[in-house]
Design a protein that fits this description.
It is built from 21 helices and 17 strands. The chain has 531 residues and is an alpha/beta fold. It has 3 domains: 142 residues, 3-Layer(aba) Sandwich (Rossmann fold), CATH 3.40.50.280; 291 residues, tm_1862 like domain (pyruvate-formate lyase- activating enzyme, Alpha-Beta Horseshoe), CATH 3.80.30; 40 residues. It has a 7-stranded mixed beta sheet with strand order 2-1-3-4-5-6-7, sandwiched between helices. It has a 6-stranded parallel beta sheet with strand order 8-11-12-13-14-15, sandwiched between helices. It is globular, with a radius of gyration of 23 Å.
């Protein structure tokens, strides 16, 4: 006799690696699953007892969130789960499965999810609980476990009212990983989607190539009521001193920003940080944000060269708009951060050096820089290949977009070296004139990488001090150098643990399948921050 949904609660395990900040995607999925009457648990590796814990929980479904570069490692992790629990249904979601759905052909993967997963995962679990066929659930590609045939289902419409999703379930993450629970700073997001068309960002591909939607359908904002209620609920239950907003463009809607800045200091009153779009930013926005408690704002410079920034990256932003936004932010006493990308197809070393100079001109306090990644289905990938540059195969992609450039060019090692020196040069402008010589020695990559990681962690400690002062916190624990050394000591322990875990997994893989598992446990993400 088939059990009903009410009679059977499906057990879902989220298996993931530790990341620099708590995972909102898992939280949203867990909220939907729990609201539907099912059960969730999270487990993070490295953990020397992870296999025993998986077997003890004995889940019906194991879920993985996959980015390109981590896809090989997570598929290998899943193979180990399948060896211990053959009945488990494996579900892979995230950017990699959305843009590379043929990933389902990988042995051991049963289902991949494309796009938003809340409604799809609930429908899947409900059907499994009822013993019903689930091969036609929208958003899912489902592999028949007997025949290997794949059902390729279309995506369902995007969730339009984000408030209807409830608040992300932070319990699932915080119970599994106290490192996130105990952190002073926690992550929040007020919107989904972005109206911009940047060629290097997933949004244009997600919007047009996956959902074929317009900006109105794709760019959605939570109500101010909803986000304030969530922040206060988190503060009532967990340690929370600083609010970290990760919206692509916080100042997207003037009316929403006005309401938020009016209510937030009265109803929440915690310091926070945001990302702003320079071509939308006015001095009025900065005044509002400063009065509301914003202490740190990032703008996306990306590239100083107008052609690279607007024709290649499609930022639609003038140099003067970048300078104006920067000046307003610093004028009103807000820490200025920048987002930059090196390695654009066609960019010269001089173009890249000019991006350093523009950051200096803007007076950036906290420069962040990435290496261009031509991910599947991104327009920048087509541009790169059309210009004749060789792109690494997906299985050779770097785990982290701050480590190496997956595009072959004569100046690759100079770009990678400049990337490591970029933040240090912006903060120490006297270095800029020496950069052309400093970036030439290929053998200096590793020393520069260590310097990059240490300096990045120092910038975070510096930023943390600003948050602390805004809260009226004082004492040696909040001094920049003390915090810096504390961060190095705690993250250093985790790094050693990860290396040992990596070696153990490789020994297992060699015994089981006579191949080496290319575990990529985070590189500088473990030592240094990523916003």
């Amino acid at each position: 006799m088939v059990q009903s949904v009410a009679q059977r609660r499906m057990k879902v395990l989220f298996l993931d690696e530790y990341l620099p900040q708590e995972m909102l995607g898992i939280m949203w999925l867990s909220r939907a699953i729990k609201d539907a009457g099912h059960e969730t648990k999270a487990l993070f590796v490295p953990d020397k007892d992870w296999v025993a814990k998986v077997k003890e929980y004995n889940p019906d479904v194991v879920c993985y969130s996959v980015t390109t570069g981590m896809h090989v490692y997570l598929a290998e992790l899943n193979q180990r789960v399948k060896a211990e629990l053959p009945h488990v249904v494996s579900v892979f979601g995230g950017p990699h499965t959305t843009f590379t759905p043929e990933y389902i052909e990988t042995p051991g993967i049963d289902i991949i999810c494309r796009g938003e997963g809340e409604q799809a995962i609930v429908e899947l679990l409900d059907r499994m609980a009822a013993g019903a066929d689930y091969s036609d659930v929208q958003n899912l590609w489902v592999k028949d476990r007997k025949t290997g045939e794949i059902a390729r289902n279309p995506v369902r419409p995007l969730v339009q009212n984000l408030d209807d999703l409830g608040h992300p379930d932070r319990d699932v993450i915080y119970e599994a990983a106290p490192i996130y629970r105990d952190s002073d700073r926690k992550v929040f997001v007020t919107q989904r989607g972005c109206p911009m068309n940047c060629s290097f960002c997933f949004h244009h591909a997600w919007k047009k190539k996956v959902y074929n939607s317009n900006n109105k359908e794709y760019t959605r904002k939570r109500s101010v009521d909803h986000i304030i209620a969530e922040i206060n609920a988190v503060r009532a239950k967990y340690n929370l001193k600083f609010v970290h907003f990760v919206d692509d463009i916080f100042n997207l809607k003037n009316s929403w920003l006005e309401e938020f800045c009016e209510r937030y200091p009265k109803e929440v009153g915690l310091p926070f940080d945001v990302i702003l779009m320079a071509n939308l930013t006015t001095e009025r926005h900065i005044e509002l944000l400063r009065k509301a408690g914003c202490v740190y704002a990032r703008i996306a410079i990306e590239a100083a060269n107008d052609h690279v920034r607007n024709a290649i990256f499609r930022k639609n932003t003038t140099r003067q708009q970048l300078i104006n936004a920067s000046q307003w932010i610093t004028k009103h006493g807000i820490r200025l951060g920048s987002l930059n990308i090196l390695g654009a197809p066609g960019a010269t070393i001089e173009d890249e050096l000019d991006t350093v100079r523009l950051n200096v001109e803007c007076g950036v306090d906290h420069p962040m820089v990435s290496l261009m990644q031509p991910y599947p289905m991104f327009d920048i990938t087509d541009t790169t290949q059309q210009m004749g540059y060789a792109v690494s195969s997906l299985d050779q992609f770097p785990v982290n977009f701050r480590r190496s450039l997956p595009v072959e060019s004569d100046q690759k090692h100079q770009i990678e070296n400049l990337h490591k020196l970029f933040p240090l040069a912006v903060r120490n402008p006297w270095m800029v004139k020496y950069l052309p010589k400093l970036i030439k020695p290929k053998w200096m990559y590793r020393p520069y990488l260590i310097l990059f990681m240490l300096h990045a962690e120092y910038l975070v400690a510096e930023q943390s001090g600003i948050y602390s002062r805004a809260q009226g916190l004082s004492g040696p624990r909040y001094w920049t150098w003390v915090d810096f050394l504390y961060r190095l000591s705690t993250k250093g322990v985790l790094r050693v643990y990860q290396v040992l875990f990596k070696k153990f997994q490789r020994r297992f893989a060699a015994r089981a399948r006579n191949i080496e598992v290319a575990l990529q446990m985070g590189d500088e993400r473990v030592v240094a921050h990523m916003d």
